[in-house]
Structures are given as C-alpha cells and as structure tokens.
C-alpha cells in the first residue's frame, strides 16, 4: 500500500456530487488553504479554498474545493494530468506530488503508517532514497530496505512538478486520523490521514475555525483521542464491516490464506450473524495454541501498532499482559478459529555473576595429556565470570575454535605447526605480489589501501599500538592482509581492524592471533556482507525481541522513526567493541564466545542496554537524531556486569515461559532445538 | 510555511536549524573536520566512523543564528547504501576528499552526482579538499577542483582539519548560502529574539567572524 497524497480529480469529484438535490451542506468554512511547496524552485504556492461537511444520503462527506481564482493557469488547463492510484470507494486520484506543507516538526511525529518495513527484501540495497525533506509521500522503495527510515520518501521527485488540483471529497469514515498542528506555529492546520495510510492535502486554517470544524466532525462520526499520536483524534469505524476489517488487520493468520474457512473475516461475519452459537462453538475449541503473530515478515508491514491490534481483540487481556504478547491461533484440525491465550512473562530475576576462570581451575580441567575435560563446565564458568587476564592467551584459542577441546598437547604441537605453515603460505601470496603486478590488481590494491587507512587509526591510544614504528601495527596490517587472502570473497571491511585489535593484543603472536581472528570472523563475518544481509537479519531479530518484550518501547521507536534500530548498528557490527573499555570488551567477548546461554545472546545484551536507557530514550523530545546520539554517547560509561546480569535475566524470563513464546522468538534464541 | 514565516519577518535575530551531512571516501578527514569545527580538536589517529555520528554546532551570522545538525558518516564503499538515510532531508552537505589522493577526488565527484540526483533539490553542497597541510604530497590540483566546483555550483575550499585552515570558513560559507528565509524547513520553530536567549553552544571562532 502506498502512502500517497490523495488528490481528487475535479471531474470525478463533480461526478460523485452529481445529484445535487440530495446534498445538504452542514458546515462550510472559507479561508482554508492548501500550501503547495514546489521543491523545484522557491515559488511556494498557497491555494485558498472552502472546506465543507456535506450530508449526501447516508454518506457524510468532507470536501475541500479551491477557489477558482487561486488555481494556477497551467493547472486549470491541465486538470486531468493525474494518475489513478487506487480504486477505493471514492474516486481516488493521485499524482506523485509530495505534500511538504506540513513541515518536519509535524511529520516527524507522524509516521506514515503503512510503511513496509519488515517486509522481506530481495533488494540488496538497503535503501535508495531521495528526499525533499519530508516523509509524507508515496514510496517506491519501502520494500527495498526493511531498515530504512519509517517513511522513506519517493525517489526522483521531479522538481518541475506542476501544481496539482487538491480538491477532494471523501467520506468522513474513510479518514482515520485528524492530526492538529502544535500550538504557536502560526496558522493552525490539520493533517488528515486515511484508513489506508494515505494523506489528504494538509489544510491550513488561515481564518481560524479549526476547533469548530473538529467539533462538528465529532458530531458526525464517533471519535476518540488517538493513543498513537499527540493532538490527534481518531475516527472510529461504525460500519458493520469494521469487525471483519479489524480481524483482517490483526493479521493473525500468518501466511496461511489457503483455507477459506479459516478466514478471520468469515468468522467475524458468522459471529455477527449468529453470535451465540458461533461464540460457544468457538470457545469449545479453545486450546492453548499460539500463533506466531510476531513473524515480522507478516506483521510488520501492517500499520497498526501492536497495542492497537491487540486491543481490538480483547481489551482486558491486553491490559493484563502487554499488548505484544496476545496470541491467537486457529485450530487446523477442526476448521475452526479459535482460541486466545497469552504468554505471560514472569518476573525478571537478577542472576549472580561469578569469579573469572582462574589458572588452578583451568589446570584442574586438563587430563594428563593436556585434553580439556568438561569443556561445558569451563564454558559455564567463563559465561558467569570471564577469564583471568593471564589465562586469556591460552583459553581464547579453544573458545574461538582454533584448538579443539579434546586435543592432547602433542596433537596441538603438530597442529600448530600445520597452521603456522598454512598462515605463512597465505601471507606469502600477497607479500610476493610485485608493485608492477599490483598496478594491474585492483582488488588487492583496494584492500591494501583500506587496511592501511584503518590500521593507522585503530586503538592508537593503547600502549600496545602507540607510536609510529610500532611492530604491532605491522602485525595488525599483515594479519588483515592475510585474512583477505584467506577470505578473498569477503575482503577487508571497515570494522574488522576493531575486531582484530584486542585479539592481537591478547594473543601477542601473529599466527595465533590470525587463527583466533578467523574463529571470531566465522561468528560475525555476515556482519560484513556486501548486501548487509547479516546486519539486516540481526536488526530484524532484535526488532522481534523488542516488540515481544517491550511493546511500549517499540511503539515509541516506531513513532520516533527509529524502528530500523539503526542506532544499534555499531553495537552489532563490531560486537560492542567501541562501547566498552578494552578490558571489558575482552570479558564481554569471551562471555559471548561460550555460546551460552543461547544463540544470539548478544541481542539480549542489546535489549539489556536499551532497557537501562529506556527512560531517557522515551522522553517525548527524543527523536531519531537524539536516540542515535544518546546511544553513541553511551560509549565508555556502560556497566558491563550489570548489563550481563540483565541480559541473562531477560533470557531466564523468556525461557521460563518457553512454551508460550512465539516461534520467531524461540528460533532466535535457539529454543526450538 | 514560507508564507507563515513571512508574516513574522520583523524578528531581529532568528535561529535557523539546518541538517548537514559529511560524505566522502574513508579516511579523507570527515570526522576530523567535524571535530575541529565542533570542539576545536584534532586527533592524528581519529578512529574510523562506524555507522554514523551526530554532532551540533552553532554559528552566528549578522542577524541569524545558524544551528548545524551534523551527520558524520562512514566512508567505506561497503556502507554506501546507508548514506541516503543520512543525506535525506539534509539542507547542506560537505563532500570531502584528500588532496594527496586522486582516487578520493574521483569518489567525491560521484558523491556530488549522487547528491544532485537524489538529495533535496535545493541542497547546498560544499567540496572540501582536506589535508591541505600536506601540500608537498598534493595529487589533486587546486585549480582542477575549483573549476569542477564552479561548473557544478559547489562551494569549494581546501581545508586542513589539522591546522584548522578554512574549517570554520567552509561551514560559515555554507551558513551564508543557506536560505535563511526558508531556514529550518527541517524544523520549523518560532523565531527567537536572540537578544533574549543565549545562542546555544556557540564556539569561539565561529561566532566572531562577522
């Protein structure tokens, strides 16, 4: 669905108004203006017109017509130069014009609801965007980038766009939100958002009358203050199809559209026709099934925030458990729909952290030939307390998969020899490329250049890397170059030097550091995919977890155009390397390398960090920019131990109600195995 | 909105807020220019930018306080696809290259083309030839870059984040060129009489130029 600006072609409006006798004008207001911002030049246009509410049969129409004198000549000559966008009940005609008259302040509070974020993307580009600075436009690229800003503006808006005819006539019931401008910004204006997410031209009340208009609207249609937007009233639906539509919007039935009898709308109709029988036969089939309503591929494109969707279902349950966790599933075997249940999260505990793995314990876990006995026990200790610094050099080799836990010392000795040979073989490959060769070898040249640029600016304040003639810089460079030969398809990508730097400092030796780096890269290499798939997947998974665990916070992020979670990009890309002190990063990494307590534990760490900062991030004035800045500025001030405790607490909280978790959440946390 | 402001044009001093984005090949000195402009600092080994960074700085023109919201981006090509998130809605951009590296100048040109094609139509673009203190290693002619800028309607200066040469100047030149009567199209706000309120976060060297 496109969030387009609706424009009603005058001819069609007139057709719709054909039978003038049935029309009663209940409200009429002159001096209501549409501001047309023409991005191609500085020539803003303001079109004066009349706003009216008209009773026509059983219809209640909201109409705006420009005063003829105000129309630019070219527009009058060319009034059909518009294209049909959609065919809803009214004659809806649109052009690719952006309505920029509302200004950013308003638009920043008002996300275009039907953004397709979360839709599975086949486009490798995250976004191809252009913007004239405003978000209420139709979008061609929503699906290209699930992480894109919530309202990605259309590309290629042509500067030479002609001024359109903004006249419109719509049924009041087709409007969902009426958003009022903030006080003190000059003329009051309203933004009208349609049920399908499109918007009508913004109406500016140059001669007052905005409040009166809203009062009149309230007498014609049921309204309520919006829970989603400030200074906004929501027009409630009162038609008999509303229930069916609400069920449709709930999108509780995932991708299964095959079974017609499962259609929620059908159930709703049945419920209306024969409520008692339908309800009781439904209740008799209630079982504890859960539907994966959190599958982002299906639910995210829906415009409604979770709390709204859920409240349509069951007001009480919503309040009791938090909207994001209402679950519904149809009963496949009986052909009925029916059951409601919810996954109630229990209290969150604060698990204890432990002591780091020490030399004695480590040695006690070795048999006489040097095999590590009970690696699971070792990992458990590391997960709970990290590793004493002196031991890291040895233990990291196991954690990162360079050594196998069951290798004897003798095996390790010969294995190391092989790995050393392998390393120098690959190192020689790039070392032996002559300058002349390199001139015709852009792939190597480019990687070399990128690595040089980053090596000179990686952790240079560390003693280990300081000074210009530092051998560690050369090692950093050589290991990264050799990694390029090891994984040429991936090549060097910015961020890798951050991942190698602590490893090299701990391992100290070139070959060991290389193979441990390979082990770490095996875990995170998809972060560096050309098409950013790895990052997209992680951000998507994080989104699922936030939606489930903290729907309120999620709604806030959506409202603040931050649902792409882009502010977590640095956290994820280099596994919090820039967020903590060098010492803490080492602890954090070794904890996460244990793979305990579940896959994607780092996402729970993100959740823990966000949870800690939630108060600040949810301040009303905290928008996309402020959120990113706040998150960036956390660097160096985060309490690692508290964060790890909270992250594990979240895990325990989830695992306690494992049976009731949506499939997607279970998949992310590996609870399906 | 423009009309709205026109009714209110009597204000003596006003605050305009502009979004500015820095683009350019990696390691040309984008973050260093921002750091010099915002904090007056220079770090020889400024770490690479992962994702994006955000800073603000305010400059004073005759009767206008211009607040820059500065987005500093990661330069490597691999992260190119994220850039539109940052230049969307920007009223100004500084495209940076390194005068000691011809490739970065070529890359700067492609950024300019992309901005001209995809960014806001009225975006003010400045080209900064950074690392001008390394003139002995120069690979990009001043004249060539100046001519290119002339052809494309760009502001152009050679800068040095290290010596602070032309750093404030390039931001000021942008502030001058931005349309103040439409300033803050990004964030319309009531115009403020600056005699009654302190300009936010003004720094030395910026507010003294006029």
TrEMBL record, chain A:
Annotated spans, Disordered: 88-125
Keywords: Acetylation, Cytoplasm, GTPase activation, Phosphoprotein
Gene3D superfamilies: 2.30.29.230, putative rabgap domain of human tbc1 domain family member 14 like domains, Ypt/Rab-GAP domain of gyp1p, domain 3
ATP-binding among keywords: no
Residue ranges, compositional bias (Polar residues): 88-107
All copies of domain Rab-GAP TBC, residue ranges: 386-596
UniProt keyword annotation of Amino-acid biosynthesis present: no
Xref: InterPro entries: Rab-GAP-TBC_dom, Rab-GAP_TBC_sf, SGSM1/2_RBD
GO molecular function terms noted in the UniProt entry: GTPase activator activity
Cellular compartment(s): Cytoplasm
Pfam families (alphabetical): PH_RBD (PF12068), RabGAP-TBC (PF00566)
GO CC annotation: cytoplasm
Subunit structure of this chain's protein: Interacts with non-phosphorylated form of RAB8A; phosphorylation of RAB8A at 'Thr-72' disrupts this interaction. Interacts with ARMC12.
PANTHER family: LD27216P, TBC1 DOMAIN FAMILY MEMBER GTPASE-ACTIVATING PROTEIN
Function, as annotated: Acts as a GTPase activating protein for RAB7A. Does not act on RAB4, RAB5 or RAB6.
Name used for this protein in its record: TBC1 domain family member 15
Organism: Phallusia mammillata
Gene label: Tbc1d15-002
UniProtKB/TrEMBL annotation, chain B:
Enzyme Commission number, as recorded: 3.6.5.2
Span list, region Disordered: 180-210
Cell location: Early endosome membrane
Enzyme class, first EC level, given as a word: hydrolase
Keywords, alphabetical: Endosome, GTP-binding, Hydrolase, Lipoprotein, Nucleotide-binding, Prenylation, Protein transport, Transport
Reaction it catalyzes: GTP + H2O = GDP + phosphate + H(+)
Family annotation (InterPro entries): P-loop_NTPase, Small_GTP-bd, Small_GTPase
Main location: membrane
Membrane topology: Lipid-anchor
Compositionally biased intervals (Polar residues): 194-210
Gene Ontology CC entries for this record: early endosome membrane
Single GO MF descriptor: G protein activity
Biological processes, Gene Ontology terms: protein transport
Family listed: Belongs to the small GTPase superfamily. Rab family.
NCBIfam families attached to this UniProt entry: small_GTP
Protein name: small monomeric GTPase
Gene that produces this protein: Rab5b
């Amino acid at each position: 669905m496109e969030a387009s600006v609706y424009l009603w072609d005058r001819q069609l409006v007139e057709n719709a108004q054909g039978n003038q006798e049935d029309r009663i004008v209940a409200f009429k207001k002159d001096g209501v203006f549409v501001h047309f911002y023409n991005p191609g030049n500085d020539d803003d246009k303001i079109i004066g017109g009349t706003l009216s509410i008209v009773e026509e049969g059983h219809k209640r129409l909201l109409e705006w017509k420009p005063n003829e004198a105000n129309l630019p000549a070219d527009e009058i000559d060319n009034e059909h130069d518009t294209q049909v966008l959609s065919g809803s009940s009214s004659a809806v005609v649109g052009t690719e014009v952006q309505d920029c008259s509302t200004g950013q302040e308003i638009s920043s509070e008002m996300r275009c609801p039907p953004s397709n974020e979360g839709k599975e993307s086949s486009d490798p580009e995250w976004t191809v965007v252009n913007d004239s600075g405003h978000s209420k436009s139709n979008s061609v690229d929503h699906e290209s980038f699930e992480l894109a800003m919530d309202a990605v503006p259309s590309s290629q808006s042509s500067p030479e766009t002609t001024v359109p005819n903004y006249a419109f006539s719509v049924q009041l019931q087709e409007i969902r939100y009426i958003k009022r401008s903030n006080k003190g910004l000059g003329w009051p204006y309203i933004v009208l958002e349609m049920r399908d997410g499109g918007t009508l031209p913004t109406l500016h009340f140059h001669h007052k009358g905005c409040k009166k208009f809203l009062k009149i609207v309230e007498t014609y249609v049921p309204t309520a203050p919006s829970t989603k937007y400030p200074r906004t009233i929501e027009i409630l639906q009162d038609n008999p199809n509303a229930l069916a539509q609400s069920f449709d919007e709930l999108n509780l039935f995932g991708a299964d559209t095959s079974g017609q009898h499962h259609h929620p709308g059908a159930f709703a109709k049945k419920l209306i026709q024969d409520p008692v029988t339908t309800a009781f036969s439904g209740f008799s089939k209630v079982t504890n099934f859960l539907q994966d309503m959190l599958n982002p591929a299906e639910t995210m494109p829906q415009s409604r925030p979770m709390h709204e969707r859920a409240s349509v279902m069951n007001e009480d349950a919503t309040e009791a458990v938090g909207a994001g966790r209402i679950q519904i599933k149809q009963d496949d075997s009986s052909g009925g729909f029916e059951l409601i249940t919810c996954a109630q999260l229990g209290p969150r505990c604060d698990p204890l952290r432990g002591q780091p793995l020490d030399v004695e314990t480590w040695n006690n876990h070795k048999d006489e030939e040097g095999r590590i006995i009970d690696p699971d026990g070792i990992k458990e200790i590391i997960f709970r307390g990290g590793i004493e610094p002196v031991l890291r050099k040895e233990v990291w080799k196991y954690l990162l998969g360079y050594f196998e836990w069951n290798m004897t010392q003798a095996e390790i000795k010969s294995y190391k020899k092989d790995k050393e040979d392998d390393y120098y073989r690959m190192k020689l490959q790039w070392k032996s490329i002559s300058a002349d060769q390199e001139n015709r070898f852009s792939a190597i040249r480019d990687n070399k250049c990128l690595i040089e640029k980053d090596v000179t600016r990686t952790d240079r304040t560390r003693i280990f890397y300081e000074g210009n003639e530092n051998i560690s810089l050369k090692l950093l460079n050589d290991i990264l170059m050799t990694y390029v030969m090891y994984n040429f398809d991936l090549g060097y990508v910015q961020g890798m030097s951050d991942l190698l730097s602590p490893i090299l400092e701990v391992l100290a030796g070139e070959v060991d550091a290389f193979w441990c780096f390979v082990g770490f890269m095996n875990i995170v290499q998809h972060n560096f995919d050309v098409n950013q798939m790895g990052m997209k997947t992680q951000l998507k998974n994080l989104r699922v977890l936030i939606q489930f665990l903290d729907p309120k916070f999620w709604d806030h992020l959506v409202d603040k155009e931050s649902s792409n979670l882009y502010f977590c990009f640095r956290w994820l890309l280099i596994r919090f390397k820039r967020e903590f002190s060098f010492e803490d990063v080492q602890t954090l990494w070794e904890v996460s390398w244990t793979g305990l307590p579940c896959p994607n534990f780092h996402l729970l760490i993100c959740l823990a960090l966000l949870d800690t900062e939630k108060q600040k991030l949810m301040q009303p004035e905290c928008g996309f920019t402020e959120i990113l800045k706040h998150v960036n500025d956390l660097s160096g001030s985060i309490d690692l131990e508290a964060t790890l405790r909270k992250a594990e607490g979240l895990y325990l909280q989830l695992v306690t109600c494992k049976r009731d978790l949506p499939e997607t959440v279970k998949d992310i946390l590996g609870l399906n195995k | 909105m423009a009309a709205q402001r026109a009714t209110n044009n009597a204000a003596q001093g006003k605050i305009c807020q502009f979004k500015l984005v820095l683009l350019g090949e990696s390691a040309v000195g984008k973050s260093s220019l921002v750091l010099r402009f915002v904090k007056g600092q220079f770090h020889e080994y400024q770490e690479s930018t992962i994702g994006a960074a955000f800073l603000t700085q305010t400059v004073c023109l005759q009767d206008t306080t211009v607040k820059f919201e500065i987005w500093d981006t990661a330069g490597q090509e691999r992260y190119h696809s994220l850039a539109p998130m940052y230049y969307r809605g920007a009223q100004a951009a500084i495209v940076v290259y390194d005068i000691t590296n011809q490739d970065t100048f070529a890359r700067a040109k492609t950024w300019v083309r992309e901005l001209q094609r995809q960014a806001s139509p009225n975006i003010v673009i400045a080209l900064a030839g950074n690392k001008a203190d390394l003139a002995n290693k120069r690979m990009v002619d001043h004249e060539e870059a100046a001519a290119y800028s002339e052809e494309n309607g760009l502001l152009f200066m050679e800068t040095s984040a290290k010596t602070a040469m032309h750093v404030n100047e390039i931001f000021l030149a942008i502030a001058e060129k931005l349309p103040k009567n439409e300033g803050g199209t990004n964030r319309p706000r009531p115009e403020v009489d600056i005699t009654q309120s302190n300009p936010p976060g003004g720094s030395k060297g910026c507010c003294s130029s006029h």
